[in-house]
Amino acid sequence: SVNYVFIFYKAMVIFAQKHFSKNNAKIYSFAxxxxxxxxxxxxxxxxxxxxxxxxxxxxxxxxxxxxxxxNHWKKIDIHFxxxxxxxxxxxxxxxxxxxxxxxxxxxxxxxxxxIIKSSIFGTxxxxxxxxxxxxxxxxxxxxxxxxxxxxxxxxxxxRSLYNLFKYDKLKYNYSKIKNFLIIGDPxxxxxxxxxxxxxxxxxxxxxxxxxxxxxxxxxxxxxxxxQAQKGKFNEVIFCAKSMHPSQIISCMTSIGKGxxxxxxxxxxxxxxxxxxxxxxxxxxxxxxxxxxxxPGNLRSKxxxxxxxxxxxxxxxxxxxxxxxGKATYFKNMFSVLFGYxxxxxYHFMNAEDSDVQLLPNLKKGVLTPLSGIENTNKEIxxxxxxxxxxxxxxxxxxxxxxxxxxxxxx
Length: 410
Prior knowledge:
By secondary structure, the protein is of the alpha/beta class. Helices cover 60% and strands 8% of the residues. The strands form 2 sheets. A 6-stranded mixed β-sheet has the order 2-1-3-4-5-6, with helices on one face. A two-stranded parallel sheet has the order 7-8.
């Protein structure tokens, strides 16, 4: 959104400089620049609020819950030291929230399992931290375990209440029932319908429209006529293989603004993309292609990189003698730690491998699934890269690290 603001308004500056007199152009240019930075500030602020509000809310809920838990202990004449309130409870809260962030609990498409995983992971980190404390500071493991249950319960209740107020459904995972209108030739439209069948679980009516001869009038009648009374369409999907871009734009214009979303299905792909707002990406229907590019996977991959690079640097006095390129080993560890590289990435045949450029963006890897394997042809490399991107799992990275660790100095 911020990038869109800068590009759009800079185009206006160029237009003003070209079509207005020198003095007027300066005035318009100054006014437009003010608008650029003001609009960019609003866009950044809006995104910050949307991102931070659920996290701040969770911090408050967890803190209040843990403090209330200490009050229960007081009723049975067990009193916690002051450092528990000042240090331990805030640290535990931050660990649970950061764990939730990395496991994708705050993502729109998050599942209930992400809450369980993040809570267990955060609790393990807290218990390790707890075990390292002096005996005088170790107050209660039961408090930590009950606190973990409170964290899980608060996540479920919060998401369920959100769905209750937004969709009138008291469920943790709820996606709005949508009726789809797919426009394109029969073969392509049926392919897209099948894709929807596998990627959107709460699908209502799906109608295929293959008559493109007088498409604008037909679509308008279907959306605004008697059909709308039976079951209003929420989303129109255009098949790019069947329609010229000008046809798609014309059709969108004839439909007009309203509560209808637009998507475009590209030919020979397994995803459908589109958005009605510059402030949001819109829903993304995909057969798990490019899954490595999902926010949750990227966070998990980054977390693994940080943990492994920190561990390998810590034990480097023991490991470094196993590597010939000692300087390269340390360079790779610090590059991964500071985010310039990742431990496992794509395999490049050459410096400008065009096929790799078509895959989801990924930092250069210290290792690849084919590290140490010689005489690989392009077909094998391409297939391996596609499989890695398509079927990404953090356990794949761990397996590759265990098998290829001897190449960390290359």
